Amino acid sequence: MNDYTSSITIDIKPKGFKQEYRLVNFIGSLDKAGLTEVRQQIEEVADAVQDEKYLVFNFANLEFINSESIGFLLMIHTRMVKKERSLVIVDAVDHVKDVLEVIGMLKIVEYHASLEEFERSI
To answer: Which end of the chain has the least Cβ crowding within 10 Å, N or C?
Structure first.
């Protein structure tokens, strides 16, 4: 019997009519186990972004992110750029935002303090 409890869940919002972006809400920890759990889903969403200009990752409920997951985010960012689309991060909790700032990720990937702030910017 497996006592493993997933460390992360993601909520992918369906495409809306004339929607400018696709939203993925992260809940939990994006650690090694969490990344393994959601990697394929995130890659599928990134590959499916066609009509939308943005893929938005909402980190309001992301409690932890490790270096492997940050590398994965950079790979998703690169995929989006190749498609002339953008990865955007919104609403990261303070300690996750601090990690992203320290490693320079927020100089590469667009960041907004809230989803509403992002929506006003587009």
So the answer is: N
- The Cα-based distances of 98 to 29, 46, 102 in angstroms read 15, 25, 6
The reported pTM is 0.89
Is residue 85 classed as helix, strand or coil in its secondary structure?
A: coil
Q: Give the β-pairing of 8-12 and 21-30.
A: antiparallel
CB 100 within 8 A of CB 111: yes
pLDDT, tens only, 29-51: 999 988 988 999 999 999 999 88
Q: Give the model's pLDDT for residue 93.
A: 95
CA-CA distance, 11 to 23, in Å (whole number)?
8
Residue located via tokens 């992360």: 8
Q: How far apart are CA 79 and CA 41, in angstroms?
A: 15
**Comparing C-alpha atoms, which of 6, 7, 4 is closest to residue 64?**
7
